[in-house]
Backbone:
């Protein structure tokens, strides 16, 4: 692992102005991802996973959105504060992104080969003919059969799995140092999902690329990730290796996510254990720990003061008052069970 991370995010804060008030969508997010490493960012819908990466790529609409604090460095270069022209030089060349829905991410009026070639013409300054030839090679690399013929077709002529391969081809056109994959297997059946994930792993091994994988699927996390950032209510509440998160999890929210995951090997488990309640309203986040209204281990301090980040192990930390050296061993010792 290199000393300098490919991507380093520190204390990122993002807000949105709405008719209902100010939404604090991202509240002090920090994480790193190194070359050849996959960082999975997990959590319920609306926790800020996608907004975080969209902010550092300059893709949030401004207004109503705005970055109000923090830093995001790509290979040491600060991304926050770059103008659109500067961001256009970075996007596609140094970092690529696979979006959730390829059908709405591709231009329906352009052939897929032309869309891939456009990235090459802009960032590599090569001729259109050379770019089209490279587009065909990229489609072949992602195992699209009859790539030369398919490059002349439009997005509506492709299946969902094939469209996702087109998106991967486009995002890898300029061999970026960082690939952001935002729910890349959404709406794909399990067979196609497996093929797409295998393809991403193969390309990562070949190019030694860093990947930020946005997902809510812990099965995908277990297969793909080296490190995991667990997000809740716009914050990273636990961060560690994939083994830390699955076998040594320290935050009640992480434990709740695991309990809600189907396990074919766990005999006698008749039903999934849902996390009670709903995520908090980010118009007005609750005082203290944002998870305390849903937490079975909540103590009196949890609804008053937000917890610090406590080390759990080597490069493994979590934000929970249970990890404080003076924390009681049970909620009943604290005199408050919720």
Residues:
């Amino acid at each position: 692992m290199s000393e300098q991370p490919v991507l380093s995010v520190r204390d990122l804060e993002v807000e949105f102005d709405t008719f209902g008030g100010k939404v604090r969508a991202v509240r002090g997010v920090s994480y790193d991802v190194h070359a050849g490493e996959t960082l999975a960012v997990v959590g319920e819908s609306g926790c800020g996973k996608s907004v975080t990466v969209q902010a550092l790529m300059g893709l949030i609409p401004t207004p109503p959105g705005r970055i109000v604090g923090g830093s995001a460095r790509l290979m040491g270069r600060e991304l926050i504060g770059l103008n659109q022209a500067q961001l256009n030089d970075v996007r596609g060349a140094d970092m690529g992104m696979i979006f959730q829905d390829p059908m709405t991410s591709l231009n329906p009026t352009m052939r897929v080969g032309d869309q891939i070639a456009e990235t090459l013409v802009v960032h590599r300054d090569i001729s259109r003919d050379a770019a089209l030839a490279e587009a065909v090679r990229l489609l072949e690399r992602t195992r699209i059969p009859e790539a030369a013929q398919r490059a002349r077709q439009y997005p509506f002529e492709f299946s969902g799995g094939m469209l996702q391969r087109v998106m991967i081809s486009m995002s890898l056109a300029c061999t970026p140092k960082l690939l952001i994959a935002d729910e890349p297997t959404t709406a794909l059946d399990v067979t196609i999902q497996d093929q797409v994930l295998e393809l991403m792993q193969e390309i990562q091994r070949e190019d030694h690329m860093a990947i930020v994988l946005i997902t809510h699927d812990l099965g995908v996390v277990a297969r793909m990730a080296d490190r995991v950032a667990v997000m809740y209510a716009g914050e990273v509440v636990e961060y560690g290796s994939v083994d830390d998160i699955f076998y040594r999890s320290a935050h009640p929210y992480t434990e709740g996510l695991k309990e809600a995951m189907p396990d074919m090997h766990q005999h006698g488990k008749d039903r999934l254990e849902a996390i009670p309640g709903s995520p908090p309203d980010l118009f007005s986040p609750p005082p203290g720990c944002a998870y305390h209204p849903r937490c079975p281990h909540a103590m009196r301090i949890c609804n008053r003061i937000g917890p610090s980040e406590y080390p759990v192990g080597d490069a493994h930390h979590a934000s929970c008052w249970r990890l404080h050296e003076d924390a009681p061993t049970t909620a009943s010792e604290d005199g408050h069970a919720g």
User: Anything to note?
Assistant: Residues 190-207 form the longest helix (18 residues). Residues 102-175 form one domain. The two ends are 42 Å apart (CA to CA).
